[in-house]
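Quick one:
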Amino acid sequence: MAQSKGSFVNSKLYQWLTRYNIHHYVLWILYYFFWVYVLSPGTNTLSYYLNSAVIVAIHAIVSYFNIYFLFPVYLQKRHYLLYFVAIVLTIFLGTFLESGIFFILDTVTLESKSELLSLRFFLTTAMAIAYTAAITMCLKLVKHWYEKERLAKELEKLNTETELKYLKSQINPHFLFNSLNSVYSLALQKSDLAPELILKLSDILRYILYEGSEKKVSLSQEIKYLKSYLELEKVRHGSRMELEIDIKGETESKEIAPMLLIPFVENSFKHGLSKDIANGYVKVSVDAKEDDLHFEITNSKPINGSEIKKNKDYKGGIGLINVRKRLNLLYPNKHNLSIAGSDNEFKVELDIKLI
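Output:
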């Protein structure tokens, strides 16, 4: 049972009611007027108000004794027989107490006082107290269950957020490590492209630091981030790499979880474009239609020395493992991820319902 932010249990009114136990007062006041209505025929005004107060007070004492003592001490510890004996004794003790108070008060006629010691009075009074104790116990259990569900949902949400932060923290160093390797390789070659590469890396890191911490970013920002990474790799690989980027649809008005698509791109370069490929390629396609996003990336496979070559059904390293987890957490039942490979090509297709 999901708790929405606007649910009553999360409202300030509910918190105020429970903090000061206002709902208890309301319950017993309503119950008091119920007994006033029941006892009012045939008696004067003062009598049925006072008699109702006595009945409600005894019912409340028995109910709270049951809820806050008998229930946790016996029933929750599964001492069922002891609980049954204790609640029966408590109810009959309440019955004797009610009979004794009415016998002392002048609010009951002499004829009625003679009935206070009758079996009928004891049974009807005991049943009334038992009904009240049972109803209040049910209300307590419902409230306890509702609070437990709310706390469970809050804990689940906290765990989800914690896990997402952990997964994102794994993605960032993973990406940074790959990018720095690219800069390092060009620096070793004393390439004039190293400054341009560093500039693009700076733009990417800016995105990670600022937009990457948000829950959602515009799809256009995420695509711009992907393009920067692709262009960075294009600079490093040069003419031996063919890059195709195809963007379709409206991307400005749509939102997506940040850094969700980059692991697929990282994976295509890490495992697809190695030094033994003379003319490798990476093809990226993004198609945004209404609330649906279709992302597709295809890359060539190296002939030798690739883990993918050894295993046709390879599903990716830490990057793809993390993105699978993030998709399950962020878009449960709203995404479809397909990863397939052939002898010469590796292809990923991802469909997400962005709402």
